[in-house]
């Protein structure tokens, strides 16, 4: 066990990180700095301050930051420029929040002169990797304390016992009915793992979902949204310009109302195992669909295909925790270069879980040329005879090969 | 104009290909062989025979083939093994039918001793390319007649006039209201282009859609389907084994009833322009979702990612018409190699346009190991301490780089 | 044949483009502007002016531009940042010159108010595509005249006859011994095609090569070069800073002396056929090797691999003529982003055709950390125990799969 | 430390693995099985038996296998079908031997009922990963002992002391002059790491190289080789058919004589650090060049490009130790599918370090069609006018975009 003077803990104020806070004090006899971020998870953060104070944390060592705007503007939106989806389904709601937490945690470590950082992620998941790759990338010699990999509180019982002994108040829900879902929430999504989700053959309980109504319970009337994009980023909804995080919050609210954005899947973790997860990403689901639609009229074909080809790698890079790595920056340079012309609007219809693109256009950057695509007389804009040569030369290698095959018999 | 003795025409029996039939006789003074394929488009094919006879086609020169089983088994299913989607949205319903038509048309050309083939695709679209690349790949020196690129009947009026003069009966719908949608149908989908769809800013008319009800009009009660897969292919629905095309037809019927599979998009054609298309692919939409789900429990992570990385290229290859090209065969070899373990079942819920995966598993090939993934005590199946070294070595290059940056200041 | 007022011809002053000049005047009755570029091909350009005047070209319509610096700085060097090689061998010497010629030709067209451009590339090769894609990308409605695809002078005899009739002086070499090699030269390379190279089973004649001595004829003493790079570009040789084109000219001179850079291959043209070509690229061969070497110590692993993965596509993009297309710009953004740390030096040994990297380092950006890599005691810089967890987690998916296989038996 | 009954050690008979043998006996008090493989490293293997006996290994527990044919036929040749090169330079000579050793070691473990395996690779390198990924993939619950990560003999002095105490004879070279190069040899290559190579700015000593003469010392007369390929594999040299390993041994001998195949580079290890290595791969260097040449006339363009695109990933997969992983098998299926037509011959010239392709052809599978590629009159085999349409449609998206840009001004 290494010698630690001061550690910055990513502190939610919940039971687990409260136990960790106490355990750090007990185990390392070190000063603890708590860092609590508002990423739009929808929880009160003030209790975190009170609890920290109760543990004897000095007021100047308690950091509670509203990172919502930075989160959406500098992390979520850049990621959506790439139409990023992991393994065909997952919108990376947890993955994209970790690098911002790491960054801010390291900033606080520098500011407070801390030599260590700590987090509450378990030793089986992706989040430990994402947090720690961020720490190491930004402060390569920082000491990292991952209590779940060190302590002996691996069973729920031991953890609750430790909390009780430490005078940490335990909610009723934690006492009853076994472990709760493992959840993570921020402006992009809320996720669920564990409990009976650990059986991929079992259907998720309706009572689990928190942000969205079920499609069955959604309104009977559809709702239309007009979304406007500039340089690939959403800038207004129904004509109202808002900040990045306000836009996403609005989409979440409307999407959740219409039962949009539930997902139930088995994914491959970076640490080598498969895991079942359920996600609610109402705003992100709308945003992805709309972004693809605005790109469909403003992006060159080969650029769009290049993006599609590189996307899975970009997604894995983020999923695996390499946001701060140079390969992510290199891919981002490519992606951002392509978004200069992604300007225009998309009209979306929401209805009982469906996100339907009904129309889209761009006044400034449309590459859709109706005079060429038309089935009507195009006045010579396109010479159909050109297709003959196009096909003949594209077929040439196939013809030569088949002729060669025939010659050999 | 080249000298043609006998030409095999891909003949639907509709107005356009009837005009082409007549035009070929008039223009090339050659014998015409008609080939009409049943790909599950849902139209009577008998009238095609009668019409052909009226044009003086010899009975032995009239080919009407039921290709439904071959179509789904050897073309649609192999393509779905790759989770193939073009430009993030389009399920390639038209693209995948063309290579089979080309193949059969060339077989008939060999059988009847024809020296030419012809089709009714326009000079602006992808289908001319797909047909002709198929012809050339399989019979490299065949003569190809593409009437739409040769004749002067480019306006609707001229075409109707020519039909009238030739005594071709014209449906009322063709006489009124301008050109109809340009449509294509087979067991995988039905597509719509043209008319007011030529304006991407205009919403599609509800009256256009033919195979699916709108989500609004779908039943209020959800329906569950149990789908079973073997080697990556669907083999049964709700426990009932059927032939490939029967399975797809069943999915179409159920999906259509629940408003599943509508799509409205702008796509990039191989010939260089953007085009607006609407598609109904009820069965394919279900199949894609379910196939991803069964892969999620049976496919190795790196194999899944490799497939995701190569998929857009495989999709473009098919979209552009290169089904018979060696690069498609090479990619197919990779894809098929991966499907040996894709065995198991998926439970799907259909409700008002939604296709929701609720559970999935594989008795024989699951790679989901609950003893490892569990949040509960795993009895040592996984050593959380291993994650420390995993992260440290994955972070090493990032740490070295940041240390180097800091050293230079 | 379209109506042309004024045409800008890419004019070398040689026999073929002189015939074209005359043919344009005869056929289109239009004003001709000649454009002759110095790309370092090593030929006198003054005769081009005299010849143009003889054809009655107005002095203000004769453009002779020294583009050597721009060529190497803005085209060759950016391409080498990607370690660009087509089909594993070809360094794209011809491909990379075409976009600059197109660009300048279109600038001249704008300046002189011309409505057409013309070039001397044949209808079978890649260069017609490269020139014309450049023209169309930069001036989309320009008229393009490609005489080799239009005229009837396809045989050598007819061409010489036309030249004779037009009073164009014909060198002795053109009169004798059939057609010469088809050659192209600029600061990056000289290429040879045609004649007996059309048989891939025939060895190239020693007398063909012009820029390099054979390895056998090269000096018996090796020569060392110290090359310095900044942001991925070569900036000095043996401590002497020079302009981009001077650096490449120096490498060509030294490389050629040592028999470096000959290549004999069969390549796949964009127009669908295979073609045999021989190339001399002495400077480029050295540059590629040295650039890889400096990257080897300054580039992050994943960035290097990302570049390697994207390189073949970037190479094809340039080979096929899409320098001015948006997908090239997107890839360039990625590549350039990676080169910020590519600073340092490489020591190269040249000897009878060999380019041998003997050492390399970077004072500012080395990621080579000898304290970690050492076989000696590393004082704890690297904890060998970390490898255990690294391997265990990387092996996890393989272990789960094999255990699952064994369980099913 | 886990409980071990019987361990199979990859035993070279050299100093290090002899110390390991003794250390395993001392530390684990377990039965040791030694496995020594002949992979063509060019060392006597009989001493390994004698030494093992001296350590008290039972005769039935000593395995000395000649794996040369299997190595080249089933590992080296399949890899060369992909033109595999890691980071643009390294031919993977060490990487490709490890999976075979792992496989045989596991076979012996099953045969002898051993529950553990062990190897002599250090905790900093790639080989530990390659060995162990192989072990785990083939016998997922095997115990793996990696002495270099466990023991305290990390310094050279301690190791020699331990050897001395154990009565292990130590060569003079080991006593003097510090640590030797870390070397690895098999039929594909010999590698060098460590010592003063740890400084990338230092030139390698001429005395280090063992398999090749320097180019300077190579014969003054060039030598030609005729190489014949079937399905992408070399089958004969100068008309003489031999087994796979005999062919490679022959190429090594001739190549070494002519100074072919030296390489000096800095590479990125999987464990996260950069490392300087020198390699001699005379036969492999010739084979790669020749294989590319025979592919150049027999492989379709798009297939060749697909292979080039996937190659770096295939190379990393092998480099990182994932030969037995399913993603390698999937890529191999693609690669092998492409090699069916790779039949023909290549003529190579070797001269003082140079490997020069002078000609190549295929009687059965050439796709080089001289009647089409010719600069002479092709009798209509290719219609140059086709190029017009080909270019126009390929340019269409660029023209539309530029027109759109101009319209907006």
From TrEMBL, chains A, B, C, D:
EC class of the enzyme, as a word: ligase
UniProt EC number: 6.3.4.5
Keywords on record: Amino-acid biosynthesis, Arginine biosynthesis, ATP-binding, Cytoplasm, Ligase, Nucleotide-binding
Pathway membership, UniProt: Amino-acid biosynthesis; L-arginine biosynthesis; L-arginine from L-ornithine and carbamoyl phosphate: step 2/3
Residue stretches making up the Arginosuccinate synthase C-terminal domain: 181-400
GO cellular component terms listed in the entry, alphabetical order: cytoplasm
Residues binding L-aspartate: 122, 126-127
Gene Ontology molecular functions: argininosuccinate synthase activity; ATP binding
Protein name: Argininosuccinate synthase
Organism this protein belongs to: Denitromonas halophila
Organism taxonomic ancestry: Bacteria, Pseudomonadati, Pseudomonadota, Betaproteobacteria, Rhodocyclales
The encoding gene: argG
């Amino acid at each position: 066990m290494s010698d630690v003077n001061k550690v910055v803990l990513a502190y939610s104020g919940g039971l687990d990180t409260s136990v960790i806070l106490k355990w750090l004090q007990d185990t390392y006899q070190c000063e603890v700095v708590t860092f609590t971020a508002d990423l739009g998870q929808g929880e009160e953060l003030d209790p975190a301050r009170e609890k920290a104070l109760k543990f004897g944390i000095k007021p100047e060592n308690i950091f509670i930051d509203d990172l919502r705007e930075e989160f959406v503007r500098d992390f979520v939106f850049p990621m959506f420029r790439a139409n990023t989806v992991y393994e065909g389904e997952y919108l990376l709601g947890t993955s994209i929040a970790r690098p911002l937490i790491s960054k801010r945690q390291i900033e606080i470590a520098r500011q407070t002169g801390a030599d260590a950082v700590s987090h509450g992620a378990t030793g089986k998941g992706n989040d430990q990797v994402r947090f720690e790759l961020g720490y190491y990338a930004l402060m390569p010699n920082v000491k990292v304390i991952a209590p779940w990999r060190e302590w002996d509180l691996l069973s729920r019982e031991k953890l609750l016992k430790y909390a009780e002994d430490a005078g940490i108040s335990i909610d009723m829900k934690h006492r009853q009915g076994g472990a709760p879902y493992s959840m993570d929430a921020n402006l992009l999504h809320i996720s669920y793992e564990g409990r009976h989700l650990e059986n991929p053959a079992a259907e998720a309980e309706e009572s689990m979902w928190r942000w969205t109504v079920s499609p069955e319970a959604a309104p009977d009337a559809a709702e239309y949204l007009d979304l406007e994009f500039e340089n690939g980023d959403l800038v207004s909804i129904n004509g109202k310009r808002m900040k990045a995080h306000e836009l996403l919050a609005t989409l979440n609210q409307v999407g959740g109302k219409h039962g949009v954005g539930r997902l139930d899947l088995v994914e491959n973790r970076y640490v080598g195992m498969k895991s079942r997860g359920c996600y609610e990403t109402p705003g992100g689901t709308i945003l992805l669909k709309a972004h693809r639609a605005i790109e469909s009229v403003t992006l060159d074909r080969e650029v769009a295909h290049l993006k599609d080809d590189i996307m899975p790698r970009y997604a894995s890079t983020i999923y695996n925790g390499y946001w701060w790595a140079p390969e992510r920056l290199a891919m981002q340079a490519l992606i951002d270069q392509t978004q200069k012309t992604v300007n225009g609007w998309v009209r979306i219809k929401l209805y009982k879980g469906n996100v339907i693109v009904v129309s889209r256009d761009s006044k400034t950057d449309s590459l859709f040329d109706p005079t060429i695509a038309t089935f009507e007389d195009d006045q010579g804009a396109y010479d159909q005879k050109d297709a003959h040569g196009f096909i003949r030369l594209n077929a040439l290698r196939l013809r030569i090969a088949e002729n060669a095959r025939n010659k050999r018999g």
